[in-house]
Amino acid sequence: MTSAVLREIGVQYDLDKFYWLGSTDSAFHYAFLTRKELALNSLEKLRAYAGLRIGATSIGHTTYTYGRTFAWLLGLKEAKFVLGYSSLEVDVAMARGELDARSNNTAEVLRRSPDAVKKGLFDFVAILKIPREDKEPDFDHLPEIDGFVKSERERRFLTLMRSTRMVGTPYIVPPSTPKDLVQILREGMKKTFQDPEFHKDFKKLTGDDASALMPESQEEIIRSIPRDAETIELFKLINGDKPLPPR
Question: Are residues 133 and 204 in the same domain?
């Protein structure tokens, strides 16, 4: 889906022509954290530190994209992105002092280290919540990355970031599907998402809580994604291998 928004070569479909049936997951919250040993426990200290080594998996991976987003909007000095790690290996590399910082899904942080926040195992810097209005009890004390936005250009960039992620893992049917069948499928998906037994089974199978997105909400998000050339180019810069753009 993101490839279609970014107008990548080889995309042969139109997002606006699909019928969207919803998704089991729409909430993804990311925190930026640094090694405790560095004592970068204030934004002033963090911005004064040059060459922070930020770990990630690969270019285009969420660990990379969100790490770059935090570094850019927080105004970090000469941040270095060190790739080639699995998500778990980034944690190990930080513990060994090979890396200094990372971005990570808050659910993963708590799954691996349930007391990470309460015991102050890391210095947590900021949070990017998707959707923004969600509550995240263990992390809501952190400043939201939106508070560091300086322009409408940056605001549209975050909207693009959020929208393409919040769509989740979508269920869709092709444009040729009869509308009466689409309506039946949508009603079935909504009833499923509203069924307490579905949420119990989802938790049992995945270990995570479902954050279901209804079909109409999903379709609305798709339609509201910024698709202007400036925002798309900015996303590609943040998500690519070039130096972070000036602000």
Answer: no
